[in-house]
Design goal:
Helix 1 links the parallel strand 1 and strand 2. The longest helix has 13 residues. The protein has a single domain, classed as Rossmann fold (3-Layer(aba) Sandwich), CATH 3.40.50. Helix content is about 30%, strand content about 20%. It has three helices and four strands.
């Protein structure tokens, strides 16, 4: 068990570069990871695959978190049992994050 077992991490910009590295690092420590992307679904799906192929839990979620008016996110799959984020994040909703359960 890692330091972050039973925790959920939402990593914005996680489809590429530093964000992808952070998402993979958090997953390696046991966190379930929401890999957020705005337009790079293929890249986000690759990061999710890298995490899940190593036994981690991850889901790709599309949301522009810079827009507070977005209330839901689209995900490639749906459902974290540990309840999602502890405070509201623009563009993310609890039901959509339940995929990580």
């Amino acid at each position: 068990m890692g330091k972050l077992t039973d925790k959920v991490a939402v990593v914005t910009g996680a489809s590429k570069g530093i964000g992808a590295g952070i998402a993979k690092g958090l997953a390696a420590e046991g966190a379930s990871v929401a890999v957020n992307y705005v337009s790079s679904k293929g890249d986000a799906d690759r990061v999710v695959s890298e995490i899940t192929n190593k036994g981690g839990r991850a889901v790709a979620v599309q949301a522009d978190v810079s827009k507070a008016s977005e209330e839901t996110l689209n995900s490639s799959s749906r459902n974290p049992s540990n309840g999602g984020p502890s405070r509201p994040i623009p563009g993310l909703s609890r039901p959509a994050l339940h995929t990580l359960a």
